[in-house]
Specification:
Layout lengths: L2 H4 L3 E4 L5 E10 L2 E12 L2 E10 L3 H4 E3 L2
Antiparallel strand pairs: 1-2, 1-5, 2-3, 3-4
Length: about 70
């Protein structure tokens, strides 16, 4: 499966349990990165968070929500 097919796939943050999705992939200085959009709820407030991480760290922080 190519990276393009995984964009907008539902994810779960393993640390917070928040819903997330991949919005893009890119390379910088020969290191592949993934940009993720998350919505975190805290009490009565929702926060929208954009997170960019090296693709090698992706599986340690997120899981696909099937």
């Amino acid at each position: 499966m190519s990276n393009d097919n995984k964009i907008n796939s539902p994810l779960i943050c393993l640390k917070t349990g928040s819903n997330a999705k991949i919005i893009s992939y890119f390379d910088k200085d020969e290191v592949p990165y993934v940009k993720i959009s998350m919505e975190i709820e805290f009490e009565d407030t929702k926060f929208h968070v954009l997170k960019t991480i090296p693709i090698n760290d992706f599986k340690d922080q997120f899981s696909y929500n099937n």
